[in-house]
Amino acid sequence: MRLVFNDQTFSFELLRTLSYAPYGGADIGECLSTAYRIKEGDFESWYTEWYKTAERIQALADDSLKRGNRISAKEFYMRASNYYRTAEFFLHGAPGDPRILETWDKSRSAFRQAIQFMDFVEQVEIPYEGTRLPGYFYRVDDERRPTLIVHGGYDSTGEELYWEVAAAALQRGYNCLTFEGPGQGAVIREQHLPFRNDWENVVSPVVDFLWNRAEVDPQRIALMGISFGGHLAPRAAAFEHRLAACIANDGLFSFQFGEMGRKLQQGFHGDLDDPINMEKFIRILMEKNVNIRWAIENGMFTYRAKSISELVAKTAAYTLEGVADKIQCPTLVCEAEHDHFFAGQPQMLYDALACPKTYMKFTAEECAEEHCQFGALLLFNHRLFEWLDQTLQVGK
Known about the structure:
Radius of gyration: 20 Å
Helix content: 40-55%
CATH topology of the largest domain: Rossmann fold
Mean pLDDT: 94
CATH superfamily of the largest domain: Alpha/Beta hydrolase fold, catalytic domain
Structural class: alpha/beta
Number of helices: 15
Shape: globular
């Protein structure tokens, strides 16, 4: 699926931003007109044009608020938040760039201005190893209900998880707790805590936080991880057995940059077990491929790696081999038919599971073939919550 851009990475990130339209995170014309102003493959052009659009929508939000138009203000703030998030996306190649914090903070601030007009959301801080993880608790009402914990992956923010799944959860009678862990959102940008492999030590404090809340049925707590989160969430579920269900969207068995490099080695004759050769080879790939350049730059940012070799070493432990079979709760593994990030990985995860399991494939015929089903979030949420209703026996 190509949208405006020939470059796959730019096209996908545009699709991702646009996909939040059904839940109030974007408007179609705003996204397309911004995209047409961007120079293909140019990270600076991407930042400039999305920032310009975000600032324009933010100004409309501020004006609506001054005029007392609360609904319009909320809608404008929501979209401004998503556009600022999109603007910041490709800046991580220079971790010291002040625009990273400035633009990301504007995204978070706009979202928090919007939720002032939503009486079903609570900004929360979850105790975690001497600090706190930021999150949002979305509740249907004061009754005890099934609750879905959601975290993102390699590059997502806690705010965008509202448009991706939390809004749909509320519509279907589920509470939803979204949060950011190490390597993500505020935790990497403000606390400088990088990703960690033992994600169960991140998720267990989140379950603790929910366990005694009056609105939460502790026997019906599910966990979903999105994108890279499709690796982290199953890892957590292998050791945190209070979870009633786990969703990997999309499933990811391993996330090892060394192995990824070896799969792309054709034409390069150096020994990739040599860190110097591996670094040289990946830099060659980065010059030729926007997606690889972004993946490495974002990886060095979120893992706090000072070199590509260090990034390769830091990701070596990210495999579910010998771990996936420890998961006990029913697990849903999602696959996007034309996933350009992790082709083949969902099947590897599914095959390694020994728990009750479901494989859910999304296809081009359904217009849902892109990574994490962007472009078809209404369909995705329909199928996700049908599975959850059945698995958690909601309504029975």
